[in-house]
Amino acid sequence: MTTASSSLPVELVVDILQHVEPHDLVAVARANKALHALSLPYLYNRVQFSTDSTAEQVLQLLSTLQASETVARLVREMALDWHDQDGSQYWDEASKVTRALANVLPATTNLASLSLPRFFHTNTVLKILEGVSCPPVRALHLYPTSLFVAPPFSLLQSLDRLSLWAEDISYQWQHDYDSTRSLAADKGSLSWLSVTSPSTLETLMCIVPMGSLRTLVIDPRPSTINVTSNEHYFVHIRHLPSLRTIYLLKWLSCQMLAEYSSIDPFPHILTVGISLCHLQEPFGYNPYRDVHDTMQALATIFPHMHTLDVRCEEPYDSEGLPHPHLRPDAALQKFQMLLLPACPRTLQRFAFLTKASFARTAEDAPFVRVPQLAEELQ
């Protein structure tokens, strides 16, 4: 097998690794010093997602990384997605990987981000979380559909970013925290939070200090969208003093905006993220009128909004064809033509991102300044 030289550019090393068989990845990891520039998710997923991969191969790869001199530089993020396809065999394999992680993680003193899948068993999740609690990770993304046992609260309280994909954790965690004391105004390290239900947000407000929270992503599952949850979200948001950015993905539609435009405004919110399908949701038959009405409702609820971050969530339509919003030039031009006359005076810039760009933060988004757009379209 031909391996990449350590002097090759990282991009070329990645390209070469695309053609390496999974069972050879371990040898490549041992032989190539250039791998310090690659992240563990790439190597891990290359082994895991192949049809002939086994837990033993993953264990071998992890043990190799542990012994590597470059492990501290190599491990910056860890994305685990061990699919529970057909029963206990996969739980056994996940448990083996978990035990390997427990040995590898303590040595990775600069582990920045950990992402766990919805298919991991709760005990597996907890074992991994205990392994990364010291030293703590800075970003944690939990995607199990329900966590029946609370993670270490000390870990949650030390995070900069937290994403929790769970409909309701209050019932399972009710004996582990004081539900009568809110930490919404207490200073902490958490600056970015993504939740799927108001009850999850309410529970976290009793566990994690949120006085430093600046970005809230509301990305609900369909079963959590109802009038009551909408009202609860608004109540909770008012108790977050440092919040400046809010993403209303798949939650707040234009019709809801119109209904809630009479509520007390949120003057401290400066950046609003919204789905393109909601921004262009028809009030009638005039697309210019639709966007104008939506922008007016947004401006009423968020009177100091200076940044609009528009996300196109669905890449394909019902027939499996590319969504018209994702035909870059035409879609962006149409959006700009609709947005410009509807802009409130406070709006200074906007971004137009597809689902592939969702992981980017607001600071990274390719924003366009409104005055610049006006000049270009004249």
From TrEMBL:
Pfam families: F-box-like. InterPro entries: F-box-like_dom_sf (IPR036047), F-box_dom (IPR001810), LRR_dom_sf (IPR032675). Residues 2-47 form the F-box domain. It comes from the Eukaryota. Gene3D superfamilies: Ribonuclease Inhibitor. Signal peptide: none annotated. This is F-box domain-containing protein. It comes from Exidia glandulosa HHB12029.
